[in-house]
Amino acid sequence: MPIYKLDAAQTLATDLQSAWEFFSDPKDLAVITPPEMRFEITGDPPAAVHAGLIITYRLTPLPVLPLRVSWATEITQVNAPHFFSDVQVAGPYALWNHEHHFQEVEGGILATDRVHWSLPLDPISSPIADFAVIPQLRHIFRYRANKMRELFGEGGESSPTLSIRAL
User: Fold this and answer.
1) Which of 158, 135, 104, 155 lies closest to 34 in space, CA to CA?
2) pLDDT band at residue 147, thresholds of 50, 70 and 90?
3) Containing H/E element for 135?
4) How far are the Cα atoms of 7, 30, 76, 87 from residue 68, in angstroms, in the given order?
5) Does the pLDDT of residue 158 top 80, yes or no?
6) DSSP codes, 28-67
7) Cα 91 → chain centroid
8) How confident is the model at residue 24 (pLDDT cuts 50, 70, 90)?
9) What is the DSSP code (8-state) at residue 129?
10) DSSP, res 93
11) CB-based burial of residue 20 (10 Å sphere; 0-12 exposed, 13-18 middle, 19+ buried)?
């Protein structure tokens, strides 16, 4: 089962507390998700994450296919206002572990996402990773970067970075 690592980072022209309030509110995930994915939270989560919180939602992970999937994540760690992590407890991946880091830097805050993921049904799913999942994840995180730039402004002099690679 190949495991992949996604790293995305960008500096935003905002303060740490404002960034934390936005990113730690589960309802704001819909704001930074591409609309064609039809993301919807199916439960009623609180306005801020906490360890042990289960968030359930439905979405269309690959909009070229009319397939809607249910997904549930558990918030496993929280160190406000600097870090939280979530893991998929039910959904389309064999492994999904997503870390969200926030650090004060000159010109704002550095927002970093690190995701370790893999697909089920290896080796059948390997071509799907290359031809569908990786391009879709690139699209999602580029959309997020653009949306965050609209919401907060670009901080510092660095451009958003994004890499996805097999480990």
Assistant:
1) 135
2) very high
3) helix 134-152
4) 26, 15, 25, 20
5) no
6) GGGGGS-GGG--EE-S---SS--TT-EEEEEE-SSTTS--
7) 14
8) very high
9) I
10) -
11) buried
